[in-house]
């Protein structure tokens, strides 16, 4: 087989597929960048609030609760107050807040408390985090709506 024949047999991505990737590449990049920022912020919080073995994991608790409150305000801002650039939501909502909040560490913390023979504290942490995170997103979005949309009237 000659080189030109081999080149003609090579599979090439369709122009449509290349344009899809080009339109998604910025989204992937801003999610990754935002995730790095959020994870660094969570790491800083973990350094500031270290948990003793078998103790209440305050850093994870506060990361999840404050992250949920911020997402409540953020969603009101970008859905009801102003039209955001198409990369703002992936950067901040998925990236920064996704990297900052950590429900996987929340699950690991519950397991660690159970392994440390603190099942009552583990259950309390499980319920407190869930209730506080849900309350935070609801209260923050309601407050943002009241403050930000109430000003426009």
Briefly characterize the structure.
With 153 residues, this protein is mostly helical.
Map the helices and strands.
Layout: H1 3-9, H2 15-48, H3 58-81, H4 88-100, H5 103-115, H6 119-152
Written overview of the protein:
With 153 residues, this protein is an all-alpha fold. It has one domain. Helix content is 82%, strand content 0%. It is built from six helices and no strands. The mean pLDDT is 90.
Please tag this protein with its features.
153 residues, 6 helices
Q: End-to-end span in angstroms? A: 74 Å
Number of helices: 6
- Low-confidence blocks of residues: none
Give the fraction of residues assigned to helices.
Answer: over 70%
Order of helices and strands: HHHHHH
Which descriptor suits the 3D outline? flat
